[in-house]
Specification:
alpha+beta; four-stranded antiparallel β-sheet; three-stranded antiparallel β-sheet; disordered N terminus; single chain
């Protein structure tokens, strides 16, 4: 979503000035006595021509910030203000421009995020990132990127990959794809949240939608999981048999 200038459009200003000029001449024009010629003179009605001028002039001192947005004020004298404007009507100077930035929750799905594990394996991920521009720090977004489109292109995917890669280098591929997947995602979320805060953005959620380590690795992990399950099953059977044997001994002693 692009950052839009809240200042009244040039076309509307031109229309107001044209209306003022037309009213000025129409209200001062009159027919002469012969009915065929026209004259012009000033009169009280000319004050009506000032109405469009007053409306146009008022736009130089007022900025309206719509709902679900925040205003970032830029001054030709002082640059970008660090104090943002909430939704509503605000007084400004003719030297100011106010830009609006959307503060609703944004969402982006990033595919083919490649990370390296501790055992030098590569895993491709598909993630979903939900984020929101901070109302208090929206000026950072304007200073750095001007628009949410540029923000989306420059940091969302890059920062997400950096955070995941930083965490995954401390785990082997089995951990990344298996039991420690949630732990890894939580750590990556903490890192990504800090990165986003520096840019004036709040991370709402980081979701890992899919992982792909290649057929060979995934087959090996699947086989390991099957083997582990077989060991657990065998151990359970052993414990069950041992319990049954102990029960029989106790029963035999009771009968004796």
């Amino acid at each position: 979503m692009k950052v839009r200038n809240i200042e009244m459009g040039l076309l509307l200003k031109i229309i107001l000035l044209v209306i003022a000029v037309v009213l000025f001449f129409v209200l001062g024009t009159y027919k002469k006595e012969n009915g065929y010629e026209y004259g012009f003179k000033f009169n009280k009605k000319h004050f009506l021509a000032l109405i469009p001028v007053i409306v146009w002039a008022s736009t130089l001192f007022v900025a309206i910030v719509p709902a679900n947005t925040v205003g970032v004020k830029y001054s030709r004298l002082n640059g970008t203000s660090n104090k943002t404007l909430d939704e509503g009507i605000h007084l400004i100077t003719p030297m100011d421009k106010v830009y609006e930035i959307d503060t609703t929750v944004q969402e982006r799905t990033v595919k083919n995020v490649s990370v390296q594990t501790q055992d030098a394996q590569f895993v491709k991920m598909e993630i979903n990132v939900k984020y929101q521009v901070s109302k208090d720090n929206a000026f950072k977004v304007y200073k750095g990127y001007k628009s949410l489109d540029n923000l989306n292109k420059n940091i969302i995917a890059n920062y997400s990959q950096e955070a995941l890669n930083e965490v995954c280098t401390n785990y082997n591929v089995i951990d990344v794809l298996g039991e420690k997947r949630t732990e890894i995602l939580n750590k990556a979320t903490e890192i990504l949240n800090r990165k986003f805060e520096n840019e004036g953005v709040t991370l709402k959620a980081l979701v890992l939608k899919d992982t792909d380590a290649g057929d060979e690795i995934e087959t090996a992990i699947k086989n390991e999981a099957v083997a582990k399950k077989e060991v657990e099953t065998a151990e359970q059977k052993k414990q069950k048999a041992q319990k049954e044997a102990e029960t029989k001994i106790i029963e035999a002693q009771g009968e004796a």
